[in-house]
Amino acid sequence: MHLQFYGAAGEVTGSCHILTVRGRTLLLDCGLIQGGDQPDIRNRQPFPFDAAAIDAVVLSHAHIDHCGRLPLLRKRGFRGPIYATPACRDLARILLADSAFMAEREAERYRRRQAEHGNRQARGFPDPLFTRVDADETIQQFKPVAYGHATEILPGVTLTCRDAGHILGSASVWLQLEEEGIRSRIVFSGDVGQYDSPILRDPEGNGAADVVVMESTYGNRRHRERSDTLREFGEILRAARAGGGNVLIPAFAVGRSQEVLYELASHFDDWRVGDWQVFLDSPMAIEASEIYWKHPELYDAEASVARRDAGRMPALPNLKLCRSAEESMAINLLRGGAIIVAGSGMCSGGRIVHHLKHNITKRECDLIFTGFQAVGTLGRAIVDGREHVRIHGEKFKVNARIHTLGGFSAHGDQEDLLRWHAGVGGKPHTYLVHGETEGASGLSEALRARGIQADVAKPAQKVDLTSCGRR
Ligand SMILES: [Zn+2]
Q1: Are strands 151-154 and 338-342 parallel, antiparallel or unpaired?
Q2: Between 266 and 434, where is the model more confident?
Q3: Nearest-angstrom CA–CA distance, 389 and 309
Q4: Could you give the angle at the alpha carbon of 259 between the alpha carbons of 252 and 163, nearest 5°?
Q5: What is the pLDDT of residues 265-286, one digit of tens each?
Q6: CATH code for the structural domain at 226-404
Q7: E-assigned strands of 94-215?
Q8: C-alpha 417 – ligand 1 centre gap (Å)
Q9: Which of 61, 312, 357, 436 sits at a 20 to 30 Å CA gap from 112?
Q10: Residue 290 CB partners (closer than 8 Å, separation 6+)
């Protein structure tokens, strides 16, 4: 029995770990590498295993850095089951289809440039990493597993998914392994959410393990208090209403869009949300929201009460869902009084870009960022305070008021991660993945201070699970 780290060791994307028990091979996640150095080339490299020989996959959650190479795994011969919660499968369907669509569009662009300018001008690949057909076929391989139900998924491998509180359907993966009379318990955290975050239940601990593989994205950080964040959100809206302009909120389609709408509904009277027209302007965020709203069994107590009282989710009578391009363009005619939630979260594409063109030069416009903005994105240029930004090749002066609301992260901070780890119990040897150097080493120090043997996982490092097991 052993475990090998393959992706997301020493970095934050491309999550993938390889577990071998009784000669069978199980993958934990199979994520896409995003950002960093030449991700297109790295994603296309051969896997360090034969895809056709993988017996099963367990998927922790639907974010593309955890599931984004599953269609590639299928293309290369994997035909086994993919275990995930039902909500995870529903969200993976949307996210993989979107990822495939973008890859198809990129490849199409490449071929066009190549035809016009020859090989030297064209950067990228003539074929997409995978197509929408590949993505759709991959979804057929999913086998839903409910939280808390122990399921034998391979000889000697019993899986229990527990809520990780990160996005809807996210799980920590608890595995009981048995080989030649030796038993070993291993827990893979997946991505761990914040405690007391809206809509979702808290990350669930409670058990014991011999080995823990744990994310460490914000292992050295402390998030801002949510109550401060919400107070600031309310103040921005009150001032914005007096200013008379529109409010733009770039948001990721899965998670953040639903959280923002939920908070607007929860503070409907307090923030005078009824004075606004609220738009969710993103077909993908609308699809993701419908999945959030149709899984009330996964809500925390507060969201369950809110849904019961309102009889629906979210309780926003003035919310308009904009599916068509015409509906989206109609918003451009509004000079004020609109709260527009649209993707992409970093303004690197999507409908938010059009709204920025119509609003960013206006002093009465408020622009609220609720998430991380990566270097090189339009969102980053704006939060960095650039006086002018380029949108679709055109120069725009930034006159809008820019706000960054901390505290909305889908990832727990150091305190949350330590709390989750304490819930696992049994003083397990802990390997930290899914973090850059500072996050992983910050968390390993904090765990060691609590008497836990904690190491930062190295790429391709192998962990012997037999020696840490028991008879
Ligand atoms: Zn995630």
Answers
A1: unpaired
A2: 266
A3: 44
A4: 95
A5: 999 999 999 999 999 999 999 9
A6: 3.40.50.10890
A7: 142-144, 151-154, 157-163, 171-179, 182-188, 211-215
A8: 14
A9: 357
A10: none
Percent of the chain having pLDDT more than 90?
Answer: 84
Q: Is 182 helix (H, G, I), strand (E, B) or coil?
A: strand
Alpha-carbon gap, residue 160 to 439, rounded angstroms: 27
- Kindly give the distance from the C-alpha atom of residue 252 to the centroid of ligand 1, in angstroms, as a whole number: 12
pTM of the complete model: 0.94
For the chain, give every domain's residue range.
2-221+410-464, 226-404
Ligand 1 centroid distance, CA of 126 (Å) = 29
Distance CA 425, CA 413 (A): 19
- Read off the pLDDT of each residue in 140-165 and give the average, rounded to a whole number: 98
Residue 28 amino acid letter: L
CATH class of 2-221+410-464: alpha beta
**Ion ligand 1: protein residues whose beta carbon lies under 5 Å:** 63, 191
Q: Comparing C-alpha atoms, which of 358, 315, 357 is closest to residue 334? A: 358
Is residue 381 over pLDDT 90? yes
Q: Which residues contact 49 (CB under 8 A, 6 or more apart)?
A: 18, 25
d(CA 197, CA 123): 41
- Measured in Å, residue 433 CA sits from the centre of ligand 1 at 13
